Amino acid sequence: MKSIAEVIIRMDEIVSECRSKESRIGYFAVLYRQVTLRIKQGILNREFEDNPRMEKLDILFAKRFIDAYELWLQGKQPTKSWKIAFDASQSNSYLVLQHLFLGINAHINLDLGIAASQTMEGSDLNEIRNDFNKINSILAELVDGVKANISTVSPIFGWLIPLAKGKDEMFLNFSIQLARDGAWKYAGEYHLAQDKKFQIRDRDENISKLAEKLINPGKLLSFLVKIIGFAEWKSVNKTMDQLDVLVK
After folding, report:
1. What tens digit of pLDDT does each residue of 144-159 get?
2. How many H helices and E strands in the chain?
3. Cβ atoms of 35 and 58 closer than 8 Å
């Protein structure tokens, strides 16, 4: 892929594949396609400090998700954090937000730092920090839109969010803000590392542990997840359609 337009074409194909297979990977794919569309519009509007550089970052960033997805479909091994997310998609035991956060966990906590470093290869990484943060802000805004309207597909969770008083991310042991901060720190470590393959393996091992906590949050929270999940929509395609509306 050499342009953000090509990325969007591939994302459209993945969303269609998930619909035809009724795969819950489609929940993240729908969200991420909207992130990519939003970044494309931002580039056209010249919202970023360096718009051509942002397109390069977006392509490298998206490629890590797409490559992991294709490896998993072929029965090969993507990074462990992506494998946990993809394997979880085969179960109806997890909440829609759990599936979304599993994808976001792998993509921000592991992929984004790598993509940022690759974008700035041979240059000062700090030059991209503001645009790096903008990608996270766009994703956070779209996720907030989903959470604000999640009662459509998850009535009980939608009812709990106001009671949680902004602590709903803690309920699922995941914070996009913390992920962003950790991703930037990791980008710096990866950028300076001599053995980049080791850096990826080591980081992936740590991020996969967070993924495990997202799907196994402990006895009490697991019990609450079951109660919440009981009332969630069971139709994958219907849920994907609704998520697509919520994140636009």
Report:
1. 888 777 888 888 877 7
2. 13, 0
3. no
* Residue 11 near residue 247, CB atoms below 8 Å: no
Burial label, 121 (beta-carbon count in 10 A; 0-12, 13-18, 19+): exposed
pLDDT tens-digit map of 43-78: 999 999 999 999 999 999 999 999 999 999 999 999
166: left (phi over 0), alpha (psi -120 to 50) or beta: left
| CA–CA gap between residue 237 and residue 24 (Å, rounded) | 9
The answer to whether the pTM exceeds 0.85 is: yes
Of the candidates 215, 237, 222, 238, the one whose C-alpha atom is nearest the C-alpha of residue 100 is 215
Contacts 24+ apart (CB under 8 A), 164-171: 171/221, 171/224
**Cα end-to-end span (Å), the chain:** 24
- Contact between 138 and 42 under an 8 Å Cβ cutoff? The reply is yes
- Cβ-count burial of 231 within 10 angstroms (0-12 exposed, 13-18 middle, 19+ buried)? middle
Instruction: Give dist(CA 94, CA 99) in Å, integer.
Output: 7
Give dist(CA 2, CA 212) in Å, integer.
34
How many CB atoms are closer than 10 A to CB 48? 20
Task: Give the position of tokens 């950028």.
Answer: 191
Those residues whose C-beta lies under 8 Å from the C-beta of residue 32, and which sit 6 or more positions away, are 11, 62, 65, 103, 107
Torsion of CA 192, 66, 11, 56, to 10 degrees: 30
In angstroms, the CA 150 to CA 75 distance is 33
Angle at 65 between CA 147 and CA 232, to 5 degrees: 30
